[in-house]
Design brief:
This protein is 74% helix and 0% strand. The protein contains 26 helices and no strands.
Length: 567
């Protein structure tokens, strides 16, 4: 399934480990370069790119695919299209869906020009999957319907069945308007699966048709289809899909106001989820069990199931957030390395003005990507508004006051904007809670330091390395009582010490869901009182002095909500 590649694409005799195959591929690439054998280099780079993508190295894979495109024969339209498809998968792995769509569109045009129907079908499937991941189900459906037309023209019975199933599932995601049309597609998929004798496709189509009937509250039809689907899946030993069907049967029982049956079926679904590792279905099963326990009057069980549901939801949300942030950080590394490579190639041969232009482009790229990451954090922590941007600007001012040079201070200001990036993985129920946090919630909140550092450490960018240092250390205390490492005094990086003071100052003078805004004078007095205990005294002195002189960056007055001083 897009954006990954099927393992079969990389099978080699003897089943050698990917690392060994990659090392062999690198040697073939070098040999082809040494021999100036462009045809061999084209093939070697394509294979190397596939192995790099399978190994989780999309940066390097993308470079390999783009070089292979350049080396491809002009007349080999299908070959070029396949390489653009692989490059699109690398872009998707780098959280660049727009670029991935552009590459797939180019590949599709080349396949159509070459009249390669099989290749066009593959590209349409990738485009549909890319839109599905983005929640763009109407665009997904358009590509699947185009795929369906080509399948019929090609006469591919098995492929036609799979596509009918995919079209039906896509329509169900756009319920309720598309449910009845989805039923027609899924019935056609059942007929096609019976004709080709595919038990797996037949079971899937019956399960999804049962889901469509449940949505329409045709409960007898839904129950019958779920039972047939479960029987087929049981023969195949497909535990993950068996769990989904049992969940469907549990929902039917719940719709019939039959909590005992719903709980029995839900319990079976839960066991199947845990045996198969189907965590996405497990979340839905736990919610069903909680609701039906409550409906049956067992409030203790309902509470326990809801607690398990909440914990698993948090885990899955955190995993998705970490993956997304890592992808964005990977994009920063990719863009930065491209710009730096161009910069150094051109520095020795172009006029000073041209070099300055390239340096400005590099800085603009870094700024754009930092903005992307910072905005991702700010959109989750919406009540704080411009907090992260102001912390960055103020941290740069404090660094200059403490003797940092302009370049260092500017980098600190950019990196400081990401000090709370780890909050991407903190659930809304904790992050946006209207009131004080309990101890377990504080424990969860404190993990944003280490999570943020981990998210940012996946890039080789010096700027992101500084951001990771700040994310890790901005809640350490001068007296050693902070977290996560309990560092003391000068053992805390100065970047973290600066952001700690600036972050606290802005938090104090801002209104939050759990507190009113302090006055500027009250906040400055608090910092002065905590100097040498919570904060680095030199940093506190710098912030207080800059505040006294009016040299801290301006803030949105609407966010300040300052009140008259009570000196």
């Amino acid at each position: 399934m897009f954006p990954g590649l099927p393992a079969a694409a990389f099978e080699t005799p003897g089943g050698a480990p990917v690392a060994q195959r990659l090392a062999d591929s690198c040697r073939r690439v070098q040999a082809a370069r040494d021999a100036d054998d462009f045809a061999a280099l084209h093939t070697a780079r394509r294979i190397e790119g596939e192995l790099l993508l399978l190994s989780g190295e999309p940066h390097a894979a993308l470079g390999a695919f783009l070089e292979a495109v350049a080396l491809c024969e002009v007349s080999d339209l299908s070959g070029q299209a396949r390489l653009w498809q692989l490059a699109a998968r690398a872009q998707a792995a780098l959280a660049a869906p727009a670029e991935a769509q552009e590459y797939l569109g180019l590949g599709l045009r080349l396949m159509e020009e070459a009249r390669d129907l099989t290749g066009a079908i593959d590209l349409l499937e990738d485009l549909a999957a890319l839109h599905a991941r983005a929640g763009e189900h109407q665009r997904e459906l358009e590509h699947l319907e185009a795929n369906l037309t080509l399948r019929r023209e090609l006469g591919d019975a098995a492929g036609l069945c799979r596509t009918l199933l995919a079209v039906g599932k896509s329509r169900l995601r756009q319920q309720p308007a598309q449910v009845q049309r989805a039923q027609r597609d899924l019935k056609a998929a059942i007929k096609a699966a019976q004709e080709i004798g595919s038990v797996s496709l037949l079971a899937q189509a019956r399960g999804w048709l049962g889901h469509a009937h449940w949505l329409l509250q045709h409960l007898d039809e839904a129950d019958s289809l779920f039972s047939q689907s479960y029987h087929d899946l049981e023969r195949l030993g497909d535990l993950a899909r068996m769990a989904q069907v049992r969940l469907g049967q549990g929902r039917v029982a719940a719709s019939r106001a039959d909590p005992p049956s719903a709980l029995r079926l839900g319990g079976q679904a839960l066991d199947l989820c845990r045996q198969s590792g189907n965590r996405s279905t497990e979340v839905q099963v736990l919610l069903l069990l909680s609701e039906q326990s409550q409906a049956g009057g067992d409030l203790a069980a309902a509470l326990e199931y809801h607690r398990a549901y909440h914990e698993l939801s948090v885990q899955l949300h955190r995993a998705r957030s970490e993956h997304r942030a890592q992808q964005i950080a990977a994009r920063i590394g990719l863009q930065g390395s491209r710009q730096e490579a161009d910069f150094y190639r051109e520095r020795g041969s172009l006029l000073e003005r041209r070099v300055a232009e390239r340096a400005a482009q590099l800085e603009a790229t870094q700024m754009e990507m930092i903005e992307l990451l910072a905005s991702a954090a700010e959109c989750r922590d919406a009540p704080q508004g411009l907090h992260n941007a102001w912390v960055g600007e103020a941290s740069a001012c404090v660094a200059l006051h403490l003797g940092w040079n302009e370049s260092q201070a500017r980098d600190l200001g950019l990196a400081a904007r990401l000090h709370d990036i780890g909050k991407l993985a903190v659930p809304d129920a904790v992050l946006l809670k209207q009131g004080p946090l309990i101890e377990s919630e504080w424990t969860l909140m404190r993990t944003h330091t280490t999570l943020g550092a981990r998210l940012l450490s996946c890039s080789t960018s010096p700027l992101l390395a500084l951001a990771a240092e700040i994310a890790q250390s901005h809640h350490e205390r001068w007296d050693g009582l902070g977290y996560p490492a309990g560092l003391r005094g000068s053992a805390i990086p100065q970047s973290g010490r600066i952001v700690a003071v600036v972050d606290t100052f802005d938090a104090l003078i801002s209104q939050r869901p759990y507190k009113a805004a302090w006055t500027l004078e009250e906040a400055a007095a608090y910092l002065h009182d905590k100097a040498g205990q919570h904060f680095d005294p030199l940093v506190v002195a710098a912030v207080v002095e800059l505040h006294r002189l009016g040299e801290l960056p301006p803030r949105d007055e609407r966010a300040l909500r300052a009140v008259p001083s009570v000196s």
